Amino acid sequence: MSEAELPTAAPAGPLQLIESRDDAEAAAESLASGHGPVAVDVERANGFRYSHRAYLVQMFRRGAGTFLFDPVAVENFESVQGAVGEIEWVLHAASQDLPSLRELRLEPASLFDTELGARLAGFERVGLQAVVERTLGVHLRKEHSNSDWSTRPLPAEWLEYAALDVELLVDVRDAIEDELLQQDKHAIAREEFGFELVRRPKPAPAEPWRRLNGLHKLKDPRKLAVARELWLARDDLAQSLDRAPGRLMPDAALSAAALAMPRSKGELIGLKEFNGRRASTDLDRWWAAIERGRATDDLPRLRVRSDTPPPPRSWPRHRPAAAARLDAARSVVRAVAEKMLLPQENLMTPGILRQTLWDADDSEPIDMVSELLRRDARHWQVDAVGAAVQEAVEAADRALVDSVQDGANTDEFSS
């Protein structure tokens, strides 16, 4: 049945935005009286606001109903956490929502991630809309996913959209769990869900301004200093206004200004690339940033040493032994992933494999099982591929030694 032929999902009942602590406590009592897991979702204002805070929290539990909380108005979710904190939470792509929930002191004790569960079950498409269609046979409209959820008042159709994100989620969870059980992947999924709860975001980069688009065009430290000051000025303004930085001034405007190094405000505002909502209204701010960049003695380096491995395509030139090991390990992961009907990146995180082999001494044996576990590979992943990867890496080492010896023998014979 095509998407057009599927029935369109509709919210179960009247929806009310919870905007007071008293109403939140009443909702918490209702949630506590329900049964089974609680479905949870968060709506943010990504691309509109500077912060990643939640502007709507949705919860659904069988026997209790659907609850839409306005965290800006409610603020304190202690009663809600007390009601549902010890039961299983169902989220879709939990890693995106858990940080915003934790800001509100909302934290699950156990988790079922329907997006991750769908990946492990071998679904080709794992967006919520696709997963709902496959598991429940209904069409879920997603037209408000990129809306500005800091808008107040929230339109009624937005609330209906938000309610559906949780009202169907427990049924989706049950369908995915059935598939995982049939494929003997339930224990694997549980280990992955548990890891999601303890994993924390990567630390912020030491120099976040280096993420500015167009920075690669700047080949001079002085221009980099100007770009840095412009980025910091924009970030400070965005934070004070709680607006997404790119909505105030696009990256292209800042990098173009740093590249041109204008000699006056008139030259700056005259740059065709220097446009944005705050280009002229905050011209003094941008010019002051350029002057700071021109005057500073703290010039940034053109290139920053990274702890992360370079792209694997460059390994054969610089680290042929590590490249051979990586190729062998990848072949094992690819073969096992196909056999288990898993995405390769879920069977073994590519970054973990690359970092392990890049950091290793090419001339020394490596204990792949220990090294992978040390880098947060899960036990089920190592059980599935660890031994085979170890054998493949050792075989690659032997092949490299043999090729070197053959080359030496050929040279000796030729001489």
Helical content, roughly?
Answer: 40-55%
CATH topology of the largest domain: Nucleotidyltransferase, domain 5
Series of secondary-structure elements, N-terminal to C-terminal: EHEEEHHEHEHHHHHHHHHHHHHHHH
**Contiguous uncertain segments of 5+ residues:** none
What is the residue-mean pLDDT, rounded to a whole number? 93
What characteristic shape results from the CA principal axes?
flat
CATH class of the largest domain: Alpha Beta
Q: Could you give the count of β-strands? A: 6
Structural Rg: 27 Å
Largest sheet: 6 strands, mixed
Question: Which strand-content bin applies to the residues?
Answer: 5-15%
Q: Considering the protein shown, what is the CATH homologous superfamily of the largest domain?
A: Ribonuclease H-like superfamily/Ribonuclease H
Structural class: alpha/beta
End-to-end C-alpha gap? 73 Å
- Give the helix tally: 20
How many domains make up the coordinates? 3
Can you describe this structure?
The chain has 415 residues and is an alpha/beta fold. It has three domains: 196 residues, Ribonuclease H-like superfamily/Ribonuclease H (Nucleotidyltransferase, domain 5); 88 residues, Orthogonal Bundle (DNA polymerase, domain 1); 103 residues, HRDC domain (DNA polymerase, domain 1, Orthogonal Bundle). Helix content is 54%, strand content 7%. The chain has 20 helices and six strands. A six-stranded mixed beta sheet has the order 1-4-3-2-5-6, sandwiched between helices. Helix 5 packs parallel to helix 8, helix 16 packs antiparallel against helix 18 and helix 16 packs across helix 20. It is flat and about 65 Å long.
